[in-house]
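Hi support team,

I've been running sequence recovery on a batch of backbones for a student project. Most finish fine, but this one hangs at about 90% for roughly twenty minutes before it completes. I'm not sure whether the input is malformed or the queue is just slow. I've pasted the structure tokens below so you can try to reproduce it. Let me know if you need the job ID as well.

Thanks,
M.K.
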């Protein structure tokens, strides 16, 4: 009986020490941890972490993050994955075309995120 009680106590102690959360060690983009502000008049009140070269569409104009400030884009930019972003917000790669939506962002690698920071489905582009 004492052995059973001891096993039960050890099991309870083990389960009590395990809070059920698992830490994730997934790789993240370290450059994305540099603080920057959102474009003027943006809906987001929270500070977002962004890196230079990030592009977004605001009031029909493409803005680029340079030195922590949003400046108007002056020429078409080609991302490292081959996507091209025009000053009007058109994104093209080969014969595929898509329009950058208001509040969406695209980084220099060609990763597109929505207003909430979630990756946009770009299947069929690569």
């Amino acid at each position: 009986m004492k052995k059973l009680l001891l096993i039960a106590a050890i099991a309870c102690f083990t389960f009590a020490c395990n809070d059920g959360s698992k830490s994730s060690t997934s790789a993240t983009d370290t450059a994305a941890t540099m603080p920057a502000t959102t474009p003027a008049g943006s809906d987001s009140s929270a500070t977002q972490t962004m890196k230079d070269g990030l592009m977004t569409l605001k009031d029909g104009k493409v803005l680029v993050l340079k030195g922590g400030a949003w400046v108007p884009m002056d020429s078409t930019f080609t991302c490292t994955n081959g996507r091209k972003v025009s000053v009007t917000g058109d994104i093209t790669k080969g014969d595929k075309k898509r329009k950058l939506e208001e509040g969406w962002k695209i980084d220099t690698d060609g990763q597109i995120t929505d207003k909430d920071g979630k990756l946009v489905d770009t299947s069929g582009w690569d």
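--
Follow-up from support: It reproduced on our side and the slowdown came from queue contention, not your input. The helical segments are 2-17. No action needed from you.
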